[in-house]
Amino acid sequence: MKIIVSVKQVPARDSALKVNPDGKWLDESDLSFEMNEPDAYALEEALQLKEKLGGEVVVLCAGPERVTQTIREALAKGADRAIHVQVAEDGGLDALATAQILAKALEGEAPDLILTGLQSDDLGYGQTGVVLAELLGFAHATIVMEVEPLGKTVRVKRELEDGWFQNVVLELPAVLTVQSGIKKLRYATLMGIKKAKTKEVKTIPAAATTSGARIDKVTLPQRSKQSQILTGDPKDVAKQLVEKLKFEARVI
Amino acid sequence: MSVLVVLEQNAGKWNRMSFEALAAGKTIADTLGVPLNAALIGAGAEELAKELATYPVAKVITVQHELLGLYTPDGYTSALEQLIKSAKTEAVVFPHTYQVRDYAPKLATRFGQAFVSDVVDIKAEAGKVSFVRQLFQGKLNASVEAKGEPQFVSVQAGTFRAAEATGASAPLESFAPQLDAAKIRSKPEDPFREAQRSVDLSAAELIVSVGRGIKEKDNLHVVEELAQALGAELAASRPICDNGWLPMERQVGSSGQTVSPKVYFAIGISGAIQHLVGMKGSKMVVAINKDENAPIFETADYGIVGDLFEVVPALVEAIKKAKS
Q1: Among A73, A53, A62, A148, which Cα is nearest to A101's?
Q2: What CATH topology corresponds to B201-323?
């Protein structure tokens, strides 16, 4: 089974975000980056499918030079090779433009499955996988919890709202967007890191896009309801809070 | 020219977010000075069409076909594509549900359009609209101007006050798309629930909920002690349950339980929207987080910016003292 895993590199969680002077995107100079966590779960699922069924796992990642670090990490965990689509800046791209770039990069690959995370932790569109499927003419399923290949089809367990689930059988090739938590993530081994250095990374330029919705401005949200912030050392704030619990909420 | 809202229903039961999308659609239609139409799709749509006609809409369109029984992205996309092409439409508005996330990006792509998903505000100025959506799980807002037509937009839960019935009666229409069973590439089975939940957080009066800030499983005792001191139920945000640190049935949020306790303690929880929708009915919210910009402080009544590993033990001490 040939599986493409589409991963994105995003600013590390808990990064302090600063808007750049033109207000269009973040000031990235002090940020550190990591693999988008939902994509890490997609990679894990792909690696486990390959271990069970054989085949190939190819990592696809679009972004500037810095994303090579994320690509190396995926190769070290066990992906066979990678495609790096060079995009100067990825801040303002909408999901359609991103998917157009990814679809073009996959020409000639003919995978059975494409896996990606259900959304990115930065832009959070949650669309790239679905749009990619449409552009490639593949079937798709989103928010996938379990993947069971059945030859020419794949049976997946999807998460619906309010604790409901649904099994769906899809024709291959298909794109699946994977829910976080689906499997336990592995760490790269020393051997894996060493091997990754010899694996193929194909670098290609990004295709032109017909982006329709660009971000004109990013801002820190205005707090509409200012919560009352209790200040002081831990003992002080604990005492203040107990007062509120006792006299306002009346739960003590 | 018109604005179309696609409401969501399953087997004759509304997804209540649909009426918030209807209100958003009304804002856009009024700004552009065009009528607002409402569409219903899938088995059960017909029963709800009459009720929908009592809302402030120009007409209600029921999209019907035997292949639209159980939802499939191919079926819904093709049916709605034909509906939208049948009349000039400037904007198509959806509630931001899991189902919409599954097919609306595909539908927008058919029109070569970007889907502006999960918007939290619509700015209407001089006959033009732009949208605000959240980035970084609520830490940043982006204003987005969509180009071309139709624009495809989904609205985050709780952003708009749900539209109310006016008692009017808009005309009903039905639309019969051409669908081919061979082009529907997914075979859905009936939805199901996992084994009955043994923990019912919806009735809890006090909830201590823990998020990523707890860092590792071995630290959970810190919040367990607080829950014990208060006599509260322990709950968590999604990542904690994903990691297996607490069972899934203790998860609060859009994919977990919806709670409304007297006091909700959000400890080390940043406050992503998926979590907030599950706990915003709480009477009092107390947030403890080291990041002063965490979106949870937007929802909290009382906030403490600090290290939970220092604040929570101090709070346990103070509660024990107050109770003795």
Answers
A1: A62
A2: Rossmann fold (3.40.50)
Q: B255 vs A225: CB contact, 8 Å cut-off?
A: no
On whether any CB of chain B is under 8 Å from the CB of A239, the answer is: yes
Q: Please list the helix, strand and coil fractions of chain B in percent, rounded to the nearest 5, in that order.
A: 35, 30, 35
- What is the rounded average pLDDT for all residues in chain B? 93
Please tell me the distance from the alpha carbon of residue B2 to that of residue B29, in angstroms, as a whole number: 7
The answer to whether the bond into B150 is cis (omega within 30° of 0) is yes
Cβ contacts (< 8 Å) between A97 and chain B: which residues? 114
Give a yes or no: residue A43 inside a domain: yes
CB contact under 8 A, A161 and B97: yes
- A195-226 pLDDT tens trace: 999 999 999 999 888 866 778 888 887 766 66
Q: Do the beta carbons of residue A19 and residue B142 sit within 8 Å?
A: no
Q: Which residues of B touch A249 (CB under 8 A)?
A: 262-263, 283-284
Q: Does A12 touch chain B (CB under 8 A)?
A: no
User: Looking at residues B233-253, what average pLDDT do you find?
Assistant: 91
Residues A32-85 pLDDT 10s: 999 999 999 999 999 999 999 999 999 999 999 999 999 999 999 999 999 999
Percent above pLDDT 90 for chain B: 74
Instruction: Identify whether A173 is preceded by a cis peptide bond (ω within 30 of 0).
Output: yes
Domain B3-183 is in which class?
alpha beta
The mean predicted confidence, pLDDT, of chain A is: 92
Task: Give A132-182 pLDDT, tens digit per residue.
Answer: 999 999 999 999 999 999 999 999 999 988 778 999 999 999 999 999 888
Asked if residues B239 and B212 have their Cβ atoms less than 8 Å apart, the reply is yes
Domain ranges of chain B: 3-183, 201-323
- What is the model's pLDDT at position B196? 63
CA distance A200 to chain B (A): 32
Which segments of A46-118 are extended strands (E)?
56-63, 81-86, 113-117
Question: Residues A221, B140: contact at Cβ < 8 Å?
Answer: yes
Q: Which domain holds residue A61?
A: 2-205
pLDDT in tens, B97-122: 999 999 999 999 999 999 999 999 99
Provide the chain A residues 31-90 that lie in CB contact (below 8 A) with chain B: none
**Are the C-beta atoms of A245 and B257 separated by less than 8 Å?**
no
- What are the two backbone dihedrals, phi and then psi, of residue A104, each rounded to the nearest 5 degrees? -65, -40
Domain membership of residue A81 (yes or no) is: yes
CB contact under 8 A, B136 and A122: yes
Two tokens at B122?
Answer: 């619509």
Overall number of domains in chain A: 1
Which residues 170-189 of chain A have a CB within 8 Å of chain B?
Answer: 170-171, 174, 180-181, 184
- For residue A54, the domain's CATH number is 3.40.50.620
Interface ipTM above 0.85: yes
Which residues lie across from A3 on neighbouring strands? A57, A113
CA A28 vs CA A12, A17, A90: distances in Å: 11, 8, 11
Q: Which of A201, A53, A160, A236 is nearest to B311 (CA)?
A: A236
